[in-house]
Specification:
Blueprint lengths: L4 H9 L4 E10 L9 E4 L5 E3 L7 H14 L3 E5 L16 E9 L7 H10 L3 E8 L9 E4 L8 E3 L4 H17 L3 E5 L10 E8 L4 E5 L3 H12 L3 E6 L15 E4 L2 H10 L8 E4 L4 H11 L6 E4 L3 H13 L4 H4 L2 E2 L11 H17 L38
Parallel strand pairs: 11-12, 11-14, 12-13, 14-15, 15-16
Antiparallel strand pairs: 1-2, 1-5, 2-3, 4-5, 6-7, 6-10, 7-8, 9-10
Helix pairs in contact: 5-10, 6-7
Length: 396
């Protein structure tokens, strides 16, 4: 929803009904992730995408139907056995799309949700996408963190279901993860029958770049492009300036290890954070990496030659850093792309971050067989082994 929020909110404020189609589950090589959204506007506009073009025409027609009758629809799209270019995904993937009408009556919480998203306040929107009672499909719960003055808005099937979903949604929100969860019809954790899509709108994940060098400017640029909140930190004020790093969200003049420790202690470095240590100077690197390698973050990479790496590891070992912690260090940083320039090196670093996030192999796709898209290592798609790849119609 984030990418279509402006258009959706404009129609909502004008009291004009629209349809929002959201990818709620994917399997195999589905082209867009869970959470991707497409809108059908009140005057027939189409905004956004759920599949990169494969099924948008069918979704558009379904959106017009939902605007007219107000009944939410859960639709599965896959490959048609008869014609792979019919209403299906030619890439071989499968996706579930929830299409629901959006107006001030059906989604009264949208204004507050939009305010939270724009302000960077974490919020999760939990929507029932499947239930034995069709009338309950589309029921919604808005969840905020535990310390929020208004932790939840709305109610699901029952108090039991509301409590269970809110608790799980807070866990997903803390990790910045969007998933579909399965419960019993009344919120039983070990049951089946009710599926709830939890869309997490957390603040941007952080990219912390240490070392105000020319490579850092390129890394900051690609980090911003990938959707990170980018901080460049260096102890040298003559180099750490906003003018030199226009793509960074902030530039900090401070000893890197002191800054990282303070940010971690303040709870501003979470498991989604990625750290790029580009100084390749022991007086900066070693104390910084001592702190970085004890944190629960997604990535820690350090620049330098193999000789620099060997010396750095020796110094870290002498400082008491464990072998397990050192195994988490990506050094020399990046994938082997043959990069030479700062921009090419930044692509190499970004490629390694993406590879580790999704569990890719970093090989040329032309040399591989099997699915193109990977499932994130933490994800556990809720799909039974007998799911057919054929596109099947669902209903509210």
């Amino acid at each position: 929803m984030r990418e279509v929020l402006d258009e959706l909110l404009g129609w909502w404020r004008d009291g004009k009904p629209s349809a929002m189609a959201t990818v709620v589950a994917t399997w195999q090589s589905a082209p867009r992730p869970a959470g991707a959204s497409m809108l059908v506007g009140p005057d027939g506009e189409a905004v956004g995408s759920v599949s990169g073009g494969c099924v948008e025409g069918a979704v558009y027609e379904l959106g017009q139907q939902v605007i007219a009758d107000g009944v939410p629809v859960l639709q599965r799209y896959g490959v048609s056995d008869d014609d792979a270019f019919a209403v299906g995904l030619t890439c071989g993937g499968i996706l579930d799309v929830l299409v629901q009408r959006v107006d001030p009556l059906t989604f009264p919480e949208l204004g507050q949700v939009a305010d939270d998203v724009r302000a960077g306040r974490p919020v999760a929107v939990c929507t029932v996408i499947e239930h034995p009672d069709p009338a309950l499909v589309g029921s919604r719960l808005v969840v905020h963190p535990d310390d929020d003055s208004e932790p939840t808005v709305g109610r699901l099937v029952s108090e039991r279901a509301t409590d269970a979903v809110a608790d799980d949604a807070r866990g997903l929100l803390a990790a910045g993860r969007t998933e579909t969860l399965t419960y019993g019809p009344d919120g039983e954790r070990r049951g089946e029958g009710m599926r709830v899509f939890v869309a997490s709108y957390a603040p941007k994940p952080r990219m912390l770049v240490f070392g105000a060098i020319d490579f850092a400017a390129a890394v900051a640029r690609v980090g911003s492009f990938l959707g990170y909140h980018v901080t460049v930190c260096d102890a040298r004020p003559v180099f750490a300036t906003a003018t030199r790093f226009p793509e960074a969200d902030e530039v900090v003049v401070r000893w890197p290890h002191q800054y990282l420790r303070a940010e971690a202690d303040a709870g501003r470095v979470d498991e989604r954070a990625v750290l790029a240590v580009l100084t390749h100077d022991p007086k900066f690197d070693v104390p910084l990496l001592e702190v970085a390698l004890e944190l629960d973050v997604a990535y820690v990479g350090a620049m330098g030659s193999r000789r620099t790496h060997d010396d750095r590891v020796k110094r870290l070992q002498e400082a008491g850093v464990s072998a397990a912690a050192l195994a988490r260090l990506s050094s020399p940083i990046g994938l082997d792309l043959g990069a030479r320039t700062p921009e090419e090196t930044a692509i190499s670093i970004a490629a390694e971050i993406v590879q580790l996030r999704w569990g890719g192999r970093g090989s040329r796709l032309v040399e591989l067989a099997g699915p193109i898209h990977h499932v994130a290592p933490h994800a556990s798609p809720d799909v039974s082994p007998d799911v057919s790849p054929e596109a099947t119609a669902g209903s509210s």
